[in-house]
Amino acid sequence: MENLPAFELIEPGTLREKLNDAVLRGTKTATSRLLVLDEMAHCPAEPAGSRMRLLDSNSATAAIIEITRTLVLTLGEVGPEVAGAEGEWFANVDQWRTAHTRYWNSKLPDIRLHLSDDEWQINEETPVIVRFFTHIKEDR
Q1: What residue segments make up the domains of the chain, in order of their start?
Q2: Phi, psi at residue 84, to the nearest 5°?
Q3: What beta strand segments (E) does the chain contain?
Q4: In what side-by-side order are the strands of the sheet with 51-55?
Q5: CA-CA distance, 73 to 113, in Å (whole number)?
Q6: How much is the pTM?
Q7: Which of 44, 89, 119, 137 has an alpha carbon 20 to 30 Å from 23's alpha carbon atom?
């Protein structure tokens, strides 16, 4: 199992632990990321069937997940299927969009530097990659 690639939902901390817990409970079955952030991390979308180690905040394996599918959508195309799969705390797409845009805006300085574009902004046409997954088993 240790030879499986690592999968991190977000930076270590309280939010990572909350998200990991939702994966373990089966209420989080997808995660979304700006496509440009994948490009910056040299992290192409994993094909369906890929198994990965979900890491906790201490870089220990919390669970094994399997990617079931990936979608690339514009931010404006993200709908209820994605918002619902992201976790139980998003009552609707607007809540999903607000939370994700707030987080992604915190990454703007790095994105702008990567793109060499000081004016780049997140908008309805910004590509978002959505990874759907299933929790295979806990590793604790």
Answers
A1: 6-138
A2: -70, -40
A3: 6-7, 30-34, 51-55, 61-74, 127-138
A4: 6-7, 51-55, 61-74, 127-138, 30-34
A5: 23
A6: 0.90
A7: 44
